Amino acid sequence: MAQHRVAVIAGDGIGKEVVPAGLRVLNAALEAAGAPGLLTAEFDWGSEYYLQNGRMMPEDALATLDRFDAIYLGAIGDPRVPDHVSLWGLLLPIRKSFDLYVNLRPVKLLRGVTSPLRDKEPADIDFLCVRENTEGEYAGVGGRVHTGTPYEVALQTNVFTYHAVERIVRYSFELARTRRHRLASITKSNACQYSMVFWDEVVEAVSKGYPDVEVNRMHVDAAAAYFVTRPESFDVVVASNLFADILTDLGGAIQGSLGMAPSANLSPERKHPSLFEPVHGSAPDIAGKGIANPAGAIWAGSMMLDFLGESQAAALVMEALQQILEAGQTKTPDLGGKASTEEMAGEIAEMVRSLAGKL
Ligand code: NAD
Ligand code: IPM
Ligand code: MN
After folding, report:
1. Is the pLDDT of residue 2 over 90?
2. Among 16, 61, 235, 331, which one is most buried in terms of CB atoms within 10 A?
3. What's the CA dihedral at 52, 53, 57, 62 to 10 degrees?
4. What are 157-203's pLDDT values in tens digits?
5. Which of 91, 95, 104 to mutate to test the pocket of ligand 2 (most atoms within 8 A of CB)?
6. Which atom of ligand 2 lies nearest, measured to the CA of 103?
7. pLDDT tens readout for residues 45-55
């Protein structure tokens, strides 16, 4: 079998810590499944690169990345570089240029993790957020005039196109069909009378082709409360770029830690490499301490293996991760433990090996 070519961008802060941890587990799983390890190329792009070269990644970076089967990314963001410069210089251009229009973010309480939601068990928190990943509030349309005067104006324009809304909604209906046949569409159509009413109309039209899927329309403020009060009512959740960005940090929190949450930026038609990353950022408050939770990165890696057709290795990763969490001896501090990133990843890799052939 051919090796999968993966471009690795660890990036900044704890990205540099969780990505090696993830790769260690992924390669252990491939080996245990009898598949060749990943053929990785590491790119030192990010804020350090920016401070030296005046840009976050080289001019031909997108062409370089396009030659890979997938991209595995840690996090971008450094206190020495303005966040809008670092993100618009690397992560957001990849998502947009490669048209990675689905940002799939599972919200699932794994076995062995305690949710801050009292009495909620893994069976209660198990849904998929589908985030529109190319436009909406992140369209990058706007400007500033009369800068530095009392008459300064700042515009940040939301862009919602039929093309992009229709395809993300359709993807979500299809996904709901493979699960519990429930779709929550999150808007704010009471206040946003153009963009969000349009979104609702597209959902209504697409729903006609999916009579077997129950659709629930919700305002984002109410949805935020329902994530906390009745997470078991969700199956597939679809929302705009910004709404789903915010809701999936809340999703991470109810999964026990933002460090648990994974994310897959997908080109469903495989026109370009898809990008896999944890939901969290570079966490400057804990960077360099070796205590970042590697689970979100490991889980995102499992999603990557699945997407690359390595379903056995992907399943091994998730089972090993959960067995280590259940054993409870090797958890990072955000999960209430004392383990380092490396210790936790090492135990998971070890567990992968001992599970080989048993799944
Ligand atoms: P953050 O996700 O980096 O951190 C928020 C909080 O969660 C912090 O207290 C942090 O310590 C904790 N946390 C996050 N991941 C953790 C992990 N794996 N283990 C344990 N604790 C973890 O969000 P922020 O502080 O708003 O942003 C920091 C920087 O990261 C900013 O520059 C921001 O722009 C960037 N960012 C990048 C991405 C990305 O590259 N995908 C995502 C979010 C934020
Ligand atoms: C995420 C991040 C990014 C986003 C930021 C860093 C631009 O928060 O992936 O959730 O908002 O998409
Ligand atoms: Mn986010």
Report:
1. no
2. 331
3. -160
4. 999 999 999 999 999 999 999 999 999 999 999 999 999 999 999 99
5. 91
6. 9
7. 999 999 999 99
- For residue 174, how many C-alpha atoms fall within 13 Å in the half-sphere facing its CB? 8
Q: Is residue 359 predicted with pLDDT exceeding 80? A: no
Query: How many CA atoms, within 13 angstroms, populate the side-chain half-sphere of residue 76?
Result: 28
Question: Cα(317)–Cα(38) distance, rounded to whole angstroms?
Answer: 15
Ligand 1 centroid – CA 280 distance (Å): 5
Q: Does 279 sit in the ligand 2 pocket, CB within 6 Å?
A: yes
What phi, psi does 76 have (nearest 5°)? -125, 135
Q: Active-site residues: which are they?
A: 138, 188, 221, 245, 249
The alpha carbon of 89 and the centre of ligand 2 are apart by a number of angstroms equal to: 13
Rounded to an integer, the average pLDDT of 12-22 is 98
Q: Which CATH architecture has domain 1-108+256-359?
A: 3-Layer(aba) Sandwich (3.40)
CATH classification number, 115-254, choose in 3.40.50.300, 3.10.20.30, 3.40.718.10, 1.10.1740.10: 3.40.718.10
Fold equal for 1-108+256-359 and 115-254: yes
Alpha-carbon distance 66 to 15, whole Å? 21
Domain-wise residue ranges, the chain: 1-108+256-359, 115-254
Entry pTM: 0.98
Please count the other Cβ atoms lying within 10 Å of the Cβ belonging to residue 187: 23
Q: Is residue 285 within 6 Å of ligand 1 at its C-beta?
A: yes
Burial degree of 82 (CB within 10 A; 0-12, 13-18, 19+): exposed
Our answer on whether the CB atom of 245 is closer than 6 Å to any ligand 2 atom is: yes
What angle do helix axes 195-207 and 162-177 make, rounded to 10 degrees?
40
